[in-house]
Amino acid sequence: MTNRNPYAAYANNRIMTASPAELTLMLYDGAIKFCNIAIDAINEKDIMKAHNNIRKVENIIDEFRVTLNRKYPVAAEFDNVYIYLRQRLSEANIKKDAEIMEEVLGHLRTMRDTWKEVMRLAGNGNHTNVS
How many domains does the chain have? Predict the structure, then answer.
């Protein structure tokens, strides 16, 4: 049986062959994408679409928290940031507040860009995941 969606096959293969650092980057990219979708949905008054995409960002933040390597002292700092973002996301979802989502988006972009730099300095990210 042939795969009807070559993009899905490519995406699945990309995930299955990614290093932990690359998976972290993909999660950051996904969180940013879902933030943007949620912001657009809030602005368009599409409450359900906004809710669903904010929940996707919350789930990614939850995954970051669960997978923190707590043997490193920096993990506690990351956890505090994730807790803060999670609280802001909950508030944004209750209020359907695009301004709060923009704040979260800014933090996620900064964290993603920092992670990309860490990967670059470490030689494309074949190292232990701390966030």
Answer: 1
